Amino acid sequence: MSDSARRPVHFQALPIARVLPVVFWRGWRVMLLFMPVLVSATLLTGCGQSQGELLFMMGLGRGPKVEAKVRLTDGPLLILVDDPNERVRSPKTMRGFFDDLAQALLKNKAAKKIIPRETLDHLRQSTPGFERRGCDAVGRLAGAEQVLWIEVEDFVAREQVEDATQAAYLSVTVKLINPNEKERRSRVRLWPVSPNGHPVTVSLTASEAQMEKTAEGIAKKLVSDMAEAVARLFYDHRLNEFGR
Fold first, then answer.
1. Is there a cis peptide before residue 195, judged by omega within 30 degrees of 0?
2. How far is CA 79 from the centre of its chain?
3. The pLDDT of residue 125
4. What are phi and psi of 201, to 5 degrees?
5. Which domains does the chain have, with CATH numbers?
6. For residue 128, is it left (φ>0), alpha (ψ between -120 and 50) or beta?
7. Main-chain dihedrals φ then ψ at residue 191, nearest 5 degrees
């Protein structure tokens, strides 16, 4: 055996700052290698809670960030829902929409103070000519700093499905009003620029509608989805997040 073979082998200690990047890099290479397997298993077996959370942590569940269309102020906000063509004939459904929207705005910190629905009901009963007043005048009566004015354009929620892809739907337009602007009418509407308002539509497929079983259940699902869709106009969010 040669002298060089008899020499003891000495291992050189590498600084931790040089080792960690190599370890992390190799770890990500392994993760990327098995990514198709994980995704395939998720699609085949269904996305359970642990799988969904894992994919979300890895960034696969995060869609593009969408900024708010406009920011609400911290002052009192009045939610005013009009149905001029009486598309939604159930007062319970209209109350549910108000409550769901108020909750969604507060939950996501888009609004800090919302004038209670009972305040509007009291004004409607106690104010002469209430129905003839404009939304800005109603906002001043309620002590609002801003008015979120929503008009129902169309509403279909029937148990008998006529369109498989759009079995039930709800369409509205949304406007944000400054009720305290008296000098210039052009400044009363804060958003959007269009006088027709910002259109929002939510719909259910035939299978989704059938899961709700009754027309009342379909209507409840539609107004719940609409409340979330309208609320997202006023806070930053990401599209296609898991659990939404």
1. no
2. 17
3. 95
4. -135, 135
5. 16-61 (no CATH), 66-238 (3.40.50.10610)
6. beta
7. -160, 145
| Torsion sign across C-alpha atoms 15, 16, 21, 25 | positive
Both tokens assigned to 86:
């009486």
Among left, alpha and beta (phi > 0; psi -120 to 50; other), residue 51 is alpha
pLDDT at res. 171 = 98
Closest by CA to 133, choosing from 149, 118, 117, is 149
Report pLDDT digits (tens) over 54-71.
544 555 556 788 999 999
Distance, in Å, from the CA atom of 21 to the CA atom of 120, rounded to the nearest integer, reads 61
Q: Which two tokens stand for residue 224?
A: 């719940």
What is residue 61's predicted lDDT score, i.e. its pLDDT? 55
Judge contact between 149 and 177, C-beta under 8 A: yes
SS (H, E, C) the chain: CCHHHHCCCCCCCCCHHHHHHHHHHHHHHHHHHHHHHHHHHHHHHCCCHHHHHHHHHCCCCCCCEECCCCCCCCCEEEEEEECCCCCCCCHHHHHHHHHHHHHHHHHCCCCCEECCHHHHHHHHHHCCCHHHCCHHHHHHHHCCCEEEEEEEEEEECCCCCCCCCCCEEEEEEEEEECCCCCCCHHHCEEECCCCCCEEEEEEECHHHHHHHCCHHHHHHHHHHHHHHHHHHHHCCEECCCCCC
HSE (side-chain half, CA atoms, 13 Å) at 218: 25
State pLDDT tens for residues 185-198.
888 999 999 999 99
